[in-house]
Amino acid sequence: MNQFKHVLKKSKNIIVVAGAGLSAASGIPTFRGKGGMWRKYDALTLATPEGFAENPSLVWQFYHYRRETALKAQPNAAHVALARFSLSSIRESIAPGSTFTLITQVCDLRMETPVIRCRSIARKQPLLPEQGQVEGSDPGINVDGLSPLALEKVMETVEATDREDARKPKIVEMHGRLFDVKCTSCDHVEFNRSSPICEGLAGTEILVEKNVMDPEIPRISLPRCSSCGALARPGVVWFGETIPNVDDIDAIVEDADLCLVVGTASTVYPAAGFAEQVQKNGGNVAVFNIDHSAGDKKADFLFLGPCQDLLPQALG
Ligand code: BV8
Ligand code: ZN
C-alpha cells in the first residue's frame, strides 16, 4: 500500500474504471459474482437489442428489478472514498496537481442532477452534449446514485470552494443510465425514477428475485414513450451496441498515467481494455477486487479484499 501511495502521489491523470463490485456493499447485486444477477439470467440475451425485441416483458422485468434495488441502496465507504478523492482540495495533498475521472460501467444512476459529462481534461470542453446537466448540480462520481449521496455527505465537511470544484465533470457513464428511458421509435429520452416505472411492472421485482419472471406482460402495459406513446426501453448500452463517444473516452484513457480498476471482473470490452492501454503507455494499474479477476494480469498493484475497506486506505 505504501508503494502504491508513492505512485499515486506522482500521478497526474488518474482514472478509475469501476464495476458492479463498487456497489456490492450497498446491496446492489453484481452481475457475475456470488448471487450475481447474471448467474440466474442470461445477460447476453437480456442485455441485447435482440433480447428486447424478442421479449420486452422479460427484459423490462430485469431492469425494473434493478431500478427498484438501486432506489433502496445507500452509499458505502468506497463511494465516500471516491467522492472525497474527486475533490481537488482533498486530492491536492494526496496526488498534487492531478486530474480525476471515473469511468463507470454500472449504470444505475438514480439522481439526475449529477448527470455529469466527462470533460476532456486536455481539451477543457465538455465531451458530451451538456443536456441533462442541471444547474447547480452536485456531481456524483458514480452512476448508481450512491456516489452523489456520498458526495453530499462529504460536501458537509469541506469548504465552499469545493462546491465549485465538485461541479466540474468527473464521470463517464460508459454504459448509459438505468433510470434513462429511451423511446424505440422517436428520439425521446427521459430520466425517470418512478417506482414502479409503470403499473404493468408493479410487484414483478419479487418474481425476478425468485427467478419466476412472467414472460407475458402485454407490450401495452410496459413503459411507453411519454412523447409518442411507442414502447420505451431502458437507456443503457446493450451488448452489441456501440459505446457513445467511445473516442472521447479513449482520449481520456490515453492521457491517464494511473488507472484504478475497482470491483469489476474486467470481462466487458472496451472497458476491460483500458487498464492495458494505460500500462502500454507507461502508466500504472492498481486492481481492487474481492476476488481474482481477469484484471489481475494487468495489475502493477493488486489489492485483494472488499473495496469498501481498501479504497478508503488507498485514497485516504
Ligand atoms: C461495443 C449495460 C462495439 C446493460 C453492459 C472485444 C473483445 C471481445 C468482445 C467484445 C470486444 N468489443 C466488443 C465486444 C462485445 C461486447 C463484450 O465485451 N462482450 C463480452 C461479454 C466479451 N461488448 C459490447 O458489445 C460493447 N459494445 O464494444 O460496441 C462492438 C460491438 C459488437 C462487437 C464488437 C464491437 C457494449 C458493452 C456494454 C454492455 N452493457 N451494461 C446492463 O447493465 O444491463 S455490461 C454490464 O456488464 C456492466 O455495465 C458491466 O460492464 C458488466 C458487468 O461487469 P462488472 O461490472 O465487472 O460486474 P461483474 O458482476 O461481472 O463483476 C463484479 C466484480 O466485482 C467481480 O470481479 C467481483 O469479484 C467484484 N466484487 C464484488 N464485490 C466486491 C468486489 N470487488 C471489490 N469489493 C467488493 N465488495
Ligand atoms: Zn417516442
Automatic annotation (TrEMBL):
Binds 1 zinc ion per subunit. Zn(2+) binds at C183, C186, C225, C228. NAD(+) binds at residues 19-38, 289-291, 307. PROSITE patterns: SIRTUIN (PS50305). It is found in: Mitochondrion. SUPFAM superfamilies: DHS-like NAD/FAD-binding domain (SSF52467). Its EC number is 2.3.1.-. Substrate binds at Y63, R66. The active site is at H175. GO terms for molecular function: histone deacetylase activity, NAD-dependent; NAD+ binding; protein-malonyllysine demalonylase activity; protein-succinyllysine desuccinylase activity; zinc ion binding. Its cofactor is Zn(2+). NAD-dependent lysine demalonylase, desuccinylase and deglutarylase that specifically removes malonyl, succinyl and glutaryl groups on target proteins. Has weak NAD-dependent protein deacetylase activity; however this activity may not be physiologically relevant in vivo. Belongs to the sirtuin family. Class I subfamily. This is NAD-dependent protein deacylase.
